[in-house]
Design goal:
Strand content: 15-25%
Oligomer: single chain
Radius of gyration: 14 Å
Strand order of the largest sheet: 1-2
Number of strands: 2
Largest sheet: 2 strands, antiparallel
Distance between the termini: 33 Å
């Protein structure tokens, strides 16, 4: 599948090929959907998954899928 992302501020589009896309709002920190991927994730000193500037999760070299989790690494004022 191909997904076209539109940047409303930069006025450009990017097309990304993917096996699947999850669109969700209001998830809670801890992201239980990542539990099965835990053996493949690289963790920061605070125990949370490492996330690149483009929101891609850092994984071990043998894990080749790209997983993007916008917001997972953002601090929350509520501490959640």
């Amino acid at each position: 599948m191909a997904v076209t992302l539109s940047d409303r501020f930069g006025q450009h589009e990017t097309t990304v090929r993917a096996d699947g896309v999850v669109l969700a709002t209001g998830y809670r920190r801890g992201a239980p959907f990542l539990d099965e991927l835990a053996p493949f994730l690289l963790l920061a000193d605070d125990g949370r998954p490492e996330v690149a500037a483009d929101y891609r999760l850092h994984t071990i070299a043998e894990f080749t899928p790209a997983i993007f989790v916008q917001g997972l690494s953002d601090a929350s004022p509520t501490g959640s």
